[in-house]
Amino acid sequence: MNVRRSAAVLAAVAVIGAAAPAAADSSPSPSRAPLPSALYGDSDPQYDGVWRQSLALLAQHTVDVEPPKAAVDWLAGQQCADGSFAPYRADTAKACDAKTTVDTNQTAAAVQALAALGGHDDVTKKAVGWLKSVQNEDGGWGYTAGGASDTNSTSVVIGALAAAGEKPAEVEKDGKSPYDALLKLELPCEGDGAGAFAFQPDKKGKLVANADATAAGVLGALGAGLAAGPGKGTGADAACAKAESPEQAAANGAAYLTDALAEDGHLVSSLPGSEDQPDYGNTADAVVALAAQGATEQARASLAWLEKNAAGWATQSGPAAYAQLILAAHATGADPRAFGGKDLVKQLSATGPAAAGKTTEAKAQEEKKDESDSGPGVWWFVGVCLVAGIGIGFLISGRRKRRP
């Protein structure tokens, strides 16, 4: 869930300044090869193709929309022989090699999506095997194999393990589980950022509170995934206490998020020069985390803020943004088809393959229409033209900023 620490990504960050999704140029490059028709979004998938596809499929699954088979097959087909996933492989006939930049986040997201949809046990088993093979000695995961453990990567892998039927607490390296790694990344109850999670320790080994890492950490500590539903946890009202268990760590993190959201209902960007700007994606992440913890009051209040304010961001950002909002609605029991006057489900489907999966009810309705009625096709085309893909802007703005 964090931008790959590779030279290519660092170069991309330098070029776009880790801009917010709305500021990213999502226009297809004239020199770029045509994108696969099965891919959601029309922006460059080099850094987030598998990630946004996985979120889109998960979001559709939560609202009982059957994704197009081509879209699911495309995701499964991105897997390397060792089980890992890269963000985007334009030529899957070519085997992955040492130059293929695979990572834990794309792999874990793909596992969560394919496990939810079912029918891809061979793919998810290989992916989980690879994730286990690159687990760090502290029990956690970094973005890339061998990278220092961080809260976001460890948490999304926990979600993948749980989705695949594993017991995360029993997945150990040198006697350390993923929960051991998370507990070491949570701030104590004294001082600034009490109860929050850090992304990683800074260069001096200090833990610095990070709101989006905290949202991820809460989900990870609960053993929940990206598509977590309403939880029955302890909420976020209890005072911060020493985190000697994942459950207490989740409660502490939820309390921190509640305080951070209380004044305005949303989180703000941590990017230099944009500190006063709302962070829509990370707010949606926080809503999911709070709902999973059982802190429904603040979760619903922040979802209401998103309903009023996030439409423009989602339209400019594309499929992963629509998916995040759908997942936030799902976590709180809200209706994503009536989200601030918008139907997020239709908007997400419009960014994907033309033969978008439909519910049984929708299929029945379409069968009644005159075959000469080109309305659905026309509106799908208009939707694709109007909706900009989320691309690297989302992955960087929603994940890169998590680093202190």
Automatic annotation (TrEMBL):
Record field: transmembrane: 378-396
InterPro entries xrefs: Prenyltrans, Terpenoid_cyclase/PrenylTrfase
Top-level taxon of origin: Bacteria
Comp. bias regions, Basic and acidic residues: 360-372
UniProt feature coiled coil, ranges: none
Keywords for the protein's UniProt record, in alphabetical order: Membrane, Repeat, Signal, Transmembrane, Transmembrane helix
Recorded GO MF terms: catalytic activity
Stretch list, region Disordered: 351-374
Signal peptide positions (record): 1-24
Species of provenance: Streptomyces toyocaensis
Gene3D superfamilies xref list: 1.50.10.20
UniProt-recorded name of the protein: Prenyltransferase alpha-alpha toroid domain-containing protein
Residue intervals of the Prenyltransferase alpha-alpha toroid domain: 53-160
